[in-house]
């Protein structure tokens, strides 16, 4: 581990290690966020906050599966004021990613106006990709809605802003979305959110495994890693270089972290594996990533970030 640095920058924030929790995991309460902050994570993401506290969808709404998880949480959270108060009343020496996820454009704009007026100066993330709010579509699949939302946001918002995006599956989608995003002073994107509206069946009981939406939910874990790698790679090839990328999806090992950074991620987020293993996962990831870098002769993340090669004979 001698002379190896795994620090990374997004905006003005320095992450001493390049992994944090994904929004929705170990972050609903102050106690949970403090567990992340006291671990080897580089920072903490808050629960995606709505203007008012929200109970979320009926339970059971999360289930572990052989290769990951399925969930239809429905944005349970303590409300935006709770997370702003946590940030403002505590001395936090790691970067904070404040996640915002209103159920309408008006709510998102109201929330961001409140953040703009607050003393908060770290990273703010607007979630355009929650697939699990009953009756609400994902804004991230509506190109007109993305552009209209960002135009309205940047009329008043001057703090560092990132976007949480849904997974895209077509090269033309990457082209179209990147063309829009490049028009705005975004600090970063976060890709991907869970793969929406999958279905897991329990053959023994001949039923679905979660209650909301008839069993349909967001898929995470090992299943989605190739999709996450593709989205990170495709957007790194298309976005302005000043827009950083948080890679999310299927991270379970230090090798997964290495591959997402190789595709162009600046840092990564961990969701399903964190839910299954707990915050001590970050110490393991740190060791595994450092071991890989030492074996390959890399001294810092920029030595290999975004340097994925074409097929080698």
Automatic annotation (TrEMBL):
What positions does the entry give for FMN binding?
47-48, 127, 164, 192, 221, 249-250, 271-272
Keyword field: Cytoplasm, Flavoprotein, FMN, Oxidoreductase, Pyrimidine biosynthesis
Per UniProt, the cofactor note for this protein states: Binds 1 FMN per subunit.
**TM regions (residue ranges):** none
Which locations, inside or outside the cell, does it occupy?
Cytoplasm
- InterPro entries, A to Z: Aldolase_TIM, DHO_dehydrogenase, DHOD_1A, Dihydro_DH_chainA_dom2, Dihydroorotate_DH_1, Dihydroorotate_DH_1_2, Dihydroorotate_DH_cat, Dihydroorotate_DH_CS
Q: In Gene Ontology terms, what is one molecular function of this protein?
A: dihydroorotate dehydrogenase (fumarate) activity
Keyword Glycosyltransferase on this protein?
no
Enzyme Commission code: 1.3.-.-
Q: Which coarse location class describes where this protein primarily resides?
A: cytoplasm
Q: Enumerate the Gene Ontology biological process terms.
A: 'de novo' pyrimidine nucleobase biosynthetic process; 'de novo' UMP biosynthetic process
**Example of a GO cellular component annotation carried by this entry:** cytoplasm
Q: Which cofactor does it need?
A: FMN
Annotated binding of substrate, by residue: 47, 71-75, 127, 193-194
Domain of life of the source: Bacteria
Leading EC class: oxidoreductase
Give the active-site positions. Answer: 130 (nucleophile)
Q: Say which family it is in.
A: Belongs to the dihydroorotate dehydrogenase family. Type 1 subfamily.
Physiological role? Catalyzes the conversion of dihydroorotate to orotate.
User: Whom does it interact with, and what assembly results?
Assistant: Homodimer.
Would you tell me the protein name for this molecule? Answer: Dihydroorotate dehydrogenase
Gene name of this polypeptide: pyrD
